[in-house]
Amino acid sequence: MNTPRWKPSVTVAAVIEKDGRFLLVEEHTPDGLRLNNPAGHLDPGESPAEGCAREAREETTCRFAPTALVGIYLSRFQRPVRDGADGAIDDVTYVRFAFCGEVGDPDPSLRLDTGIVRTLWLTPDEIRASVDRHRSPLLLRCMEDYLAGQRFPLEAVVTDSSVRSQ
């Protein structure tokens, strides 16, 4: 049997907390404006922690230095394809590496990444009350795991040197 190989999309997310508030981005999506952690896809040649620092900077203009892994999450996303064939669906499985760490101030010389409308600092209760605006259910799950004290050492995620060879 020759079935296609399953290839989940690898993403990275920054769980950034300061003074009891979490830094989120509001971004354009096919479903309208949504809230999310600063997050995105892992690029070739980078470790998950490096990708997370890059994505956080691109989406918030803030330097972010991961200090711990909050968790690794598997999530499946399905929705009808817009302007697609009848019954066609987008069906993507994501593997998300979520990191917490230290954040710097916004860099006024940088611009927010394409699609990002603004950044927001929200309390846990404000995030819990806005579930209908979340881009992914992992936003809330990552925050709750962070608040519960879930942390793993950065060394738990090993990036072999072969990844650096292009």
From TrEMBL:
Cofactor(s) required for function per UniProt: Mg(2+)
Gene3D superfamilies given in the database record: Nucleoside Triphosphate Pyrophosphohydrolase
GO molecular function: nucleoside diphosphate phosphatase activity; ribonucleoside triphosphate phosphatase activity; thiamine diphosphate phosphatase activity
Keywords per UniProt: Hydrolase, Magnesium
Enzyme class, spelled out: hydrolase
Coiled coil residues, start to end: none
Keyword hit for Hydrolase: yes
One Pfam family hit: NUDIX
Residues covered by the Nudix hydrolase domain: 5-144
UniProt EC number: 3.6.1.-
Family: Belongs to the Nudix hydrolase family. NudJ subfamily.
Subunit structure: Monomer.
Name the record gives this protein: Phosphatase NudJ
Biological source species: Rhodoferax koreensis
